[in-house]
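User: Fold this; tokens only.

Assistant: Input:
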Amino acid sequence: MSNKPEPMITGLLTVAPRYCGPPNSANGGYIAGRLSTFVGDSAQVSLLRPPPLNTAMQVATRSDGGVDLINNDGIVATAIPATARVSITAVPDFDVACAASERTFPAALHKIPQCFVCGPGRNHGDGLRIHVGPVDPADSEWSGTLAAPWVPAAALADGQGEVGAEFVWAALDCPTAYACGSLDGMPPVLLGRQTVSVARRPRAGEHCVVVATQTGHDGRKYFADAVLVGADGQQIAVCNAIWIEVSEAQLLGSA
């Protein structure tokens, strides 16, 4: 008989199909942001398997202050308190970010066009439609800073007009995936780990800028940082991300 204590279930978490990344699983940043609310404004979330849609998953508190997200297949994700640190200091203004976004890769090259955050197939007001591109027009390899504007819709905010943490995490998620790519598109990657520190939540209608840059590449792993800045030019949140290259069949949930 095991003496290991049973996990303490503190909540349930279900992801509606609207918040997909790949067709059959949740957007990584969105689900990470949902799970982060159980540990605080600064957290690290590791995704161990694609988070399913329309499935009630249990949130279990651990003795170390972290939480596990569990379904019938086992642990889907874990969250622990942690602090993100980035070296990004220069952030373009809103108009420059708009121009950079126009230099993103063609929509036809997007592998998951219905992604809630970056899918070009999502309608305005449905998906976030954040498509970062190089700030420097000559940066065809995307080796420098990428940027895009983000004006959060009112539907993403609470009764006080503040945008939910899950949407802050989501807005920082896909830009770091784009930082793994170039004008020729992104490699097939899935979010492995995201660490985010949120200083405040943006307000609905606020003219924000998100920037991202790749910080390293090791085999199947890509490393990238991102920063979300508000209309006052101050940091709203910062992010470290690790992306894992997979097959296209794995990306689309067909393998």
